[in-house]
Amino acid sequence: MSEHTPTPNKTAPIEGSTAVPPAEAAVVGPQAVSHPPHTHSTENSGHESSPETKPQEVKARVSSAESPASETKPPERPHVVVFKNVCKTFGNGSGAKVALHDISFTVEDLPNIGELVTIVGPSGCGKSTLLRIIAGLKPHFPPTSGEVHVFGKSVEEPGPDRGLVDQKYSLLPHLTVLENVAFGLKLRGVSRSERLDQAREWITKVGLDECERKYPSELSGGMQQRVAIAATLILQPRILLMDEPFGALDPGIRLRMQELLIQLWNEKEETVFLVTHSVEEAVYLGDRVFLMASKPGRLVEVLKVPRPAEPPEESRRKPWFIDFCQALLRRLEEESPAPPGVKV
Ligand code: ADP
């Protein structure tokens, strides 16, 4: 198994500017309608986070985590995602349900790198709603109040700059694995031989070489999820939204997919939002962990994480990693119900 590339400094100063592709259509699994992929630089910058962080440093990091609503100077290049006081309520009157309450955060567009944000919190705290608002997908989008900006523009609808890997594997049942993975490229007008070549590469990356001629119904849930991941990643969206993408996978395959995600993240400059129920996965993958709480769904803390330099199974044995996970678990357990005055 390959070792991770050292990770750039996640707090590097913002420089330069970036072109923003037009938001025209969503990239959501193989049914996506989208446009030629954004070309990314593979150059990284900044210094490496130390994997040998001492427990006391971990504690300091956890306790000094930035406020979700923290604001910086006006950016020289548009932020990747900005939420300003975003609320989402489903339904009306006595049946109204507050899914998200007053969520604010910023993901900056750092030069030549992306950020991997993991989101943890109890079921029903609004993790999927948050992702789907970024994706511009109804009925979660639009928010009831507040502002959502992607690359400096107000989100109006889904776009090819955002790709969602959902909990449900959005595959086309009448297409083979190969055709499913290639489908988005077909819609982009990529030639048959080119798209099938690329699709085969992605099928290999997700470990499904033997399955390219099979149909979704012939695959396990975990295999279908890997096809859905490949079908989204092949389109190289600038913002990758992953809603518990590895939840259905066996532990060994899950580790392999985590490795793949890290590898891709290092190669591209994409921003990734990944919802997970696994604290270990959140800490291993995340540059920042968004900690959410429920009743009402809200963002309670943002934790910066040093990036491990080793494969997952080694990282997980390091004292700093164990301490960080325990601290996060404690924070998850501490989170209490609704503040007064908010109807849940
Ligand atoms: P999570 O992903 O953290 O489990 P969700 O974002 O799926 O949470 O849901 C947050 C809250 O919003 C839950 O109470 C859920 O029941 C509610 N909710 C989500 N989607 C809808 C919907 N389409 N209609 C009504 N309520 C919804």
Report the span from N to C terminus. Answer: 46 Å
Count of separate DSSP helical elements: 9
The proportion of residues forming helix, as a percent range, comes to 25-40%
Order of helices and strands: EHEEEHEEEHHHEHEHEEHH
Residue-averaged pLDDT, rounded? 78
The unreliable regions are: 1-70
Shape: globular
Radius of gyration: 19 Å
> What ligand molecules are bound, each kind once?
adenosine-5'-diphosphate
Strand order of the largest sheet: 1-7-8-9-4-10-11
The number of distinct β-strands equals 11
β content, as a range? 15-25%
Class from secondary-structure proportions = alpha/beta
Largest sheet: 7 strands, mixed
In terms of quaternary structure, what is this? single chain
Question: Any overview of this molecule?
Answer:
The chain has 344 residues and is α/β, with parallel strands linked by helices. The protein has a domain at 177-236. It has 9 helices and 11 strands. The chain has a 7-stranded mixed sheet, with helices on both faces. Strands 3-2-5-6 form a 4-stranded antiparallel sheet, with helices on one face. Strand 8 (239-243), helix 6 (251-267) and strand 9 (271-275) form a beta-alpha-beta unit. Helix 3 (177-187) crosses helix 4, helix 3 packs parallel to helix 5 and helix 7 (279-285) crosses helix 9. The N and C termini lie far apart (46 Å). Bound molecules: adenosine-5'-diphosphate (ADP). Residues 90, 97, 99, 121, 123-129, 139, 297 line the site of adenosine-5'-diphosphate.
